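User: Sorry, folds how?
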Amino acid sequence: MARLSTSPLGLAVFAGIAAGGLTPPVPASILLSFWDPSGLSAEAEFTVSGFAELTVRLKNTSTGVPGGFDNSDQILTGLSWDFGAPGFNGDIAITGGTVFTGPSSMSVNFSILDVGPNADVSGEWGFGNMDGTGALTNFFSTNTAGATPFGGVNLDGPVALDGPQGGLVADPILVALGGLGAIQDEIIVTLTLSDDITEAQLLKDLTNNLVRVEFGSDAFFITIPTPGVLALFGLAAVSSRRRRRTA
C-alpha cells in the first residue's frame, strides 16, 4: 500500500544579469528542492546549456530515511519530468548525454574502479522517454525499466544498468551500504535533446507539469504536484512509498 505525505517545497529561479542591466525575466537556472518529513531529500538544478542541450545537477541531500529502509532504498536513482504537454506524445525527447561526478563527489564500493570528482560515470546511468515505469515521461536513472544506457566505461558490476547501484547517497551515508556501489553527493548530467528548448519554455514545463525523484527501485518517490505558472514558491511535495519493482 502506498504511503503518501505532503511537505513544503521550494523552487528558486535565478535570473542572469547583462552588462546593460537585468536580462528579460527568464531563468539562467532553475533549482528544485524535494523533501519528505522522514529526512529524505534531494536537489535538482536545470540549466539550458546550449542548443538542444540541457544540464542537470542532481544531489542527494537526505538527512534521514523512513523506518524500514534498507541500504539500497536510500540511494537516489532517478529524476523525471515532462517536456511539453503531459504524457508521451511526440514532444522534445532526450537522445543521449553524459554523466559526471560533481566537484566534491566520489564513488563508493565500485567493484571495478572507484573514481573521484569530475569523473565520467555515464556507464552507470541511462535515459528514457516513455510512460509506465513509475518515472515521468522524460528521465534519467540507474534502474533498467525503460532506460537506454548512456554508454561508457563500466565501473561497477555488470555492463548492463544495475540500479539502484550507481545511484546517489548522501554525505554522510545514512545506512551502511554493505558493499553496494554508489556515488556520494551529486552528479552533473548533460543531456542532448531532439530539439532546442528555451529557458522560458523549460520553466513553463517544470512548473506546469510534475517533477519527480526516485529512491531505490520504486522504494520511494517525491513528486512536485502541478503548481500553476504563478505558484513558484511554497509548493507542496507529495511523497509516496511503493512496493519494489518485480521485473
About this structure: The helical segments are 199-208. The mean pLDDT is 84.
